[in-house]
Amino acid sequence: MLMAAHIAVMASGTTIGSAQPVEATGVPINETKIINALTGLMRDNARLHNRNETIAQEFITQNINLGPEEALRSHVIEFAADNLDSLLTQLEPYTLVLSTTQVGTAVWKLVLTSAIGNASYTTSFNFSGISQAAQYTYTPGLSVSLLQFLSNPLIAIVLFLVGMYAVIIGFKTPGYGVEIAGALMVFLSLIGFGVIGISIAATLFFILGIILTLIEIKTHIGIFALAGIGLIIFASFLAFPLPGWELLSARAVESARESLVAVALVMSGIFGFVVYKVGQARRMKVKSGPEQWIGKAGTVVSALEPRGEVRVEGQTWKAESIAEPIKAGEQVEVVSREGLVLRVKPKQVEE
Description:
Number of strands: 12
Distance between the termini: 90 Å
Number of domains: 4
Number of helices: 10
Structural class: alpha+beta
Helix content: 40-55%
Oligomer: single chain
């Protein structure tokens, strides 16, 4: 990466070199095909940026190492700087130009602006005044921090094992949500193992969050709605940065994330309100049919011995006492309804 950069810089106490390829297990690769391919790539990048091709090759073939002073003398880097302000100050007198060699190949060169003169080049970038330019710092988002945590092999393995056992336990003891927590752990472990990308994980979390909120409609437990909303908001954070985010400003990325989270919160709130109202409606007493008369108070029109008539909410009904006979004029309470007959009992007088 350093050899492919237009401007290479090292700080004090740093080292560059030892670029021989290795296996994932750390065993060095000595196959000629691979070594030659990487050596050619390193050499061509050095040539493209007007750097020392011999040293670039020896980084791979000899595993040499250079500090900033040696790298600067060997023309492997352009500057040595310990902070950004120092780098910009050193860079200010220069211009980066793309010129063509005698054989027709392109070369990037960093030259003093005062020495350009009538030099021939096709593209140039003048760094005059760059030390006064505004500096913006991009802070890695939640997705980057999450990937750093999950990429730890130990964390990924523990999440996978615990998640699998939680799924099994959840299926054996349904109703506690253990299987949901287990599935979440397995998803996170798959991200750490690199099986699924973070964008796919965000989509899965969105889907899982919606499924949990739908389950809440059926169960009315409460925990499913909270878990669903939490997963939807979590997925909203993971959705950025997306591929191509580096083309956006830090503020644009942050604004996009805030907008997405706000929409997720609003929609989750609306959905939660609907779920609450549905549950509330299911708990309400039925307001139509025979059940609507249960608990109503009425007055006996003709004595119930045990059958007679009562008046309830202005309507006269045939009625039957479920207890002792009830005299005319006394208050009764409807217990049930059978067809067109109300079954009643004496109304308790409140003291």
